[in-house]
Amino acid sequence: MSKKEVEIFNESFKDLIYEITEDNKNSISIIECLLKGKITDEEISEDIELRLNVVRRILYNLYDAGLVNYKRSKDPETQWYTYNWKLEKENIVKTVMDKYESPFEEIKGSLVYEDNMFFACVNGHIFNFEEASKYNFICPDCNKPLNYQDNSFLIAELKKEIMDSNEKFKE
Ligand SMILES: [Zn+2]
């Protein structure tokens, strides 16, 4: 990855963690612990001086999102369970990439869409021919007539947007 891509990755990763746990400071500390090889809830809790129940809540949130996994083992003496956590690194990268990719994919998707004939009302609700004819060329959202749109300008705009996004991947 280029320096720029690493920056984008890190930013997207932080956004993702916030979405999942709503607590970036503690979540990132926990992830750093796992990277350092502190793998039980108790070790992590001690290392970053954070209450055990908070550590567990965050770990379970990350687990639900598929970013960490655990192995449970029973202590033969105390009969207590120990949870050994590990990062699902591949999943983390994949999840971040997907998340970052999606606005980009959306642009590409709409470009294919706009290559067809399309119809719009004055309020900017857009439909392809099939949809527009199904609604008898009346916008189902606002009841205004749907008119044929010359899409060459829009396509040019979208192409420019994609070029700009591609530009961000370079360096
Ligand atoms: Zn409309």
UniProtKB/TrEMBL annotation:
The GO terms this record gives for MF are: DNA binding
- GO process terms (BP): regulation of DNA-templated transcription; transcription initiation at RNA polymerase II promoter
A Pfam entry, by short name = TFIIE_alpha
Domain of life, per UniProt, equals: Archaea
Q: Which keywords does this Swiss-Prot/TrEMBL entry list?
A: DNA-binding, Transcription, Transcription regulation
Q: Which InterPro entries match?
A: TF_E_archaea, TFIIE/TFIIEa_HTH, TFIIE_asu, TFIIEa/SarR/Rpc3_HTH_dom, WH-like_DNA-bd_sf, WH_DNA-bd_sf
Ranges of residues in domain HTH TFE/IIEalpha-type: 9-93
Instruction: Cite the record's note on assembly.
Output: Monomer. Interaction with RNA polymerase subunits RpoF and RpoE is necessary for Tfe stimulatory transcription activity. Able to interact with Tbp and RNA polymerase in the absence of DNA promoter. Interacts both with the preinitiation and elongation complexes.
Q: Which family does it belong to?
A: Belongs to the TFE family.
Domain comment in the entry: The winged helix domain is involved in binding to DNA in the preinitiation complex.
The role this protein plays is: Transcription factor that plays a role in the activation of archaeal genes transcribed by RNA polymerase. Facilitates transcription initiation by enhancing TATA-box recognition by TATA-box-binding protein (Tbp), and transcription factor B (Tfb) and RNA polymerase recruitment. Not absolutely required for transcription in vitro, but particularly important in cases where Tbp or Tfb function is not optimal. It dynamically alters the nucleic acid-binding properties of RNA polymerases by stabilizing the initiation complex and destabilizing elongation complexes.
Name by which UniProt lists this protein: Transcription factor E
